[in-house]
Specification:
- This protein is of the alpha+beta class and about 180 residues long.
- The protein has one domain (about 10-170).
- The protein has helices spanning about 10-20, 50, 100-105, 130-140, 150-170; strands at about 30, 55-60, 65-70, 85, 90-95.
- It has a 5-stranded antiparallel β-sheet.
- The N and C termini lie far apart (about 45 Å).
Length: about 180
């Protein structure tokens, strides 16, 4: 039996799905990377406490942004950790409160903006080749679909993003991002 992709069962399910459908996108710009691989976080800060709190796992867009789990505490269920967007244009934001919330955002089939926002489902003109298979996978495995009410979702994420930004500002200059 081969080694699992990660210690996170939800990510392992996604990796199996991704391997099964082959080299096609199922969400615009998203691609799993080596679990825990470098995501350029050292360009933000080389402080060991800062770097040790992130677990990169995926490319977020085609221009260099990544997703990483934020070890905000010592919980053992890594799938419940917040997901941070490490933006290629300087953004560093909580993008989802958990992996399943990120999976719902991936169902929008939209690359994230540097401020952590997404296009809503109605604004996406053309879907990725594997999008419909991803929607079926998301429903089958988690009983979920694309989120409704992105503004409400961002409002629910804001307290966690504020907490993240307060913590991160001890190590990096977040400026006006």
């Amino acid at each position: 039996m081969s080694e699992p992709y990660s210690p996170v069962p939800e990510l392992n399910l996604l990796k199996e799905f991704s391997d099964r459908i082959g080299p096609v996108y199922y969400s615009d710009g998203f691609e799993l990377r080596e679990y825990g691989a470098d995501a350029g976080l050292h360009t933000w800060s080389e402080h060991p406490e800062f770097l040790s709190r992130f677990v990169p796992f995926a490319q977020a867009n085609g221009s260099g942004s990544d997703y990483a789990l934020w070890r905000c505490d010592d919980r053992t269920d890594l799938a419940t950790l917040p997901v941070v967007l490490v933006g290629d244009e300087g953004g560093l934001h909580v993008i989802a409160r958990s992996l399943t919330e990120l999976f719902q955002l991936l169902a929008l089939d939209s690359e994230p903006f540097s401020d952590g926002g997404f296009l809503d489902a109605e604004s996406v003109e053309e879907h990725s080749d594997g999008h419909h298979e991803f929607l079926a996978w998301l429903d089958q495995n988690f009983g979920l679909g694309p989120p409704e009410g992105l503004d409400a979702l961002r409002a629910e994420q804001k307290p966690l993003d504020d907490r993240f930004r307060t913590w991160a500002s001890r190590y990096v200059d977040l400026g006006d991002h």
